[in-house]
Specification:
Helices cover 43% and strands 14% of the residues. The chain is of the alpha/beta class. It is found in: Golgi apparatus membrane.
């Protein structure tokens, strides 16, 4: 009997120790969560709480003061940046866009101001994206107009939740659709160019008679309201807007030798790798020019390229080159007789001259533009809030790169400023 009581006592003591250990673990977890929440910041897109009070983080953001480079406002923005930024997960966008009626009201799509001039000058967009559904959603909201047309091309390798988010977003609008043909996009590969071409083909077949098409990726953001953009595009009078420059000897290597897609040991997984096999000269005597993947092209030019045997042969020839999207458009726009073309003899059009995309390269900061106030990713600046005024005043129409996890304040302020400008110009025209 004594032995049995001793055994029960030991068993009770062990149970007590296990319970005490579990209690300590739970308390530590609770303290950790409290500290994490206290030092983190949940950022919703500007306007997502329409009709209700904005969250505390948004209340502390004075975008007008940041635009004026007020040191106190900039300091508050930096303080917000020091917190752990929590953005909407892909699953949240899937859920948000699953109820289209609620989503459209919540994000203020039904209240977008628009002028009669804009309605007569519809635009098309090719959105080639692969991750961060919350950022794609904010970009789409910033460029959306009910009379424009939007093609979304998502990467076949994208996560299921990202794909579901894009599909749900496209179902909420009659003028937003997913490309009929999707690519498994590889960095610097022909598949990146084909993704845009797939969207362009679909856009040409749409009922919307758009004037210009603009391509964007998931880390781009507009710097002009739709009203301002339409006004500036009209000044082109059918000309195209893109980079087109004569290549350096180093850049010539990209299309002078055949490249093979191979597995690599860093983030891209696969890359076109240069071989020792030289390529034949470009077909039809095409003179090579280089630029970037970004373009703003007239409808006439896109239709011409889609029907041109020269363009088709050039696309085939470009298949084993490095980053063909950076020479395909830049070279075709120099061909004699193409709609809105640039004469071969004309000077180079660099990235600072073409208004398609404002990009800060780390090795040019200080010489061509002020230093990056955000962070750098592969030598490219991910912008910070202190660059709000510079971005809006520089003169370009779109910029890259933006990431709310680097600086949530800047994107919020861009959303707010673009909405203000759109409303201002539409109201002014209606008077």
């Amino acid at each position: 009997m004594k032995i049995r009581c001793t055994y029960l006592h030991k068993l009770q003591y062990r149970c007590y120790l296990i319970f005490l250990s579990l209690l300590i673990v739970c308390l530590l977890k609770f303290v950790y969560v409290k500290v994490t929440v206290k030092n983190s910041l949940f950022i919703e897109p500007y306007g997502i709480t329409a009709g209700a009070s904005r969250n505390q983080a948004h209340k502390n953001i004075d975008c007008s003061a940041i635009y004026k480079l007020d040191p106190v406002a900039i300091g508050k923005a930096l303080e917000i940046r020091r917190k752990e930024v929590i953005t909407l997960e892909d699953e949240s966008i899937v859920s948000l866009a699953s109820d289209c009626q609620r989503y459209i009201v919540l994000r203020g799509y039904a209240n977008i101001p628009i002028s009669s001039e804009e309605r007569l000058f519809p635009l098309a967009y090719s959105l080639v994206v692969h991750k961060d559904a919350h950022m794609v959603e904010r970009m789409l909201r910033a460029i959306y107009m009910p009379h424009n047309i939007y093609c979304i091309h998502y990467d076949q390798k994208s996560s299921r939740s990202f794909i579901a988010a894009m599909e749900n977003l496209s179902k909420c609008f009659p003028n937003v659709f997913v490309a009929s043909k999707l690519e498994s996009v590889q960095y610097a590969h022909i598949t990146r160019l084909k993704a845009d071409l797939n969207c362009l083909s679909d856009l040409l077949q749409s009922a919307v008679r758009w004037k210009y098409v603009i391509n964007m990726c998931g880390q781009d953001f507009p710097l002009r309201s739709n009203f301002e953009l339409v006004w500036e595009l009209k000044q082109l009078q059918g000309a195209n807007m893109l980079e087109t420059s004569r290549p350096s000897e180093l850049k010539k290597q990209r299309f002078s030798f055949q490249h093979e897609l191979k597995a690599v040991s860093f983030e891209y997984q696969k890359l076109p790798v240069k071989t020792a096999h030289p390529k034949d000269p470009p077909p039809h005597g095409i003179e090579m020019f280089i630029g970037s993947a970004y373009f703003i092209l007239s409808r006439d030019f896109v239709r011409h390229v889609s029907q041109s045997p020269v363009a088709r042969d050039f696309l085939s020839w470009s298949a084993d080159t490095y980053s063909p999207d950076e020479h395909f458009w830049a070279s075709l726009v120099r061909l004699p007789g193409v709609p809105g073309g640039v004469p071969r003899s004309s000077p180079d059009i660099t990235d600072l001259m073409s208004k398609t995309r404002l990009v800060k390269w780390s090795y040019l900061e200080g010489a061509l533009y002020p230093s990056c106030t955000g962070a750098h990713l592969r030598s490219v600046c991910v912008y910070g809030a202190a660059e709000l005024r510079w971005l809006l005043q520089y003169g370009h129409w779109f910029a890259n790169k933006f990431d709310p996890k680097v600086d949530p304040v800047l994107i919020t302020c861009l959303e707010e400023k673009l909405e203000e400008k759109q409303r201002h110009w539409v109201d002014l025209q209606s008077k």
